[in-house]
Specification:
The chain is built from four helices and five strands; from the N terminus they run H-H-E-E-H-E-E-E-H. The protein is globular and about 40 Å long. Bound molecules: zinc ion (ZN) (3 copies).
Amino acid sequence: MPTCLHLDRLAYAAVATTPGGCEECLAIGQEWVHLRGCQTCGHVGCCDQSIGRHARGHFQGTRHPVIRSLEGREEWSYCFVDLVEYDPAEDWDREGADLG
Ligand SMILES: [Zn+2]
Ligand SMILES: [Zn+2]
Ligand SMILES: [Zn+2]
């Protein structure tokens, strides 16, 4: 279990500003592979496998540390500062707390 203060503070707080796709890619008509949502401001960007890499670009421009996967039922988050990934499906402590 990683200890990243960014993830603890920002878990799943933001609402996507452009739910239909990567904000920058939509603006220029470019395609993306996967979508990542900024947990600070709700910016939607594309993953590192995409041409634009706009989720990473958003972090480099704003220093907003945490993104969340917006792909289907995936719920993992990633902190660009600490290089830590967090997936609640693998968080046994939290599941136990919910049951109790
Ligand atoms: Zn962090
Ligand atoms: Zn993009
Ligand atoms: Zn942001």
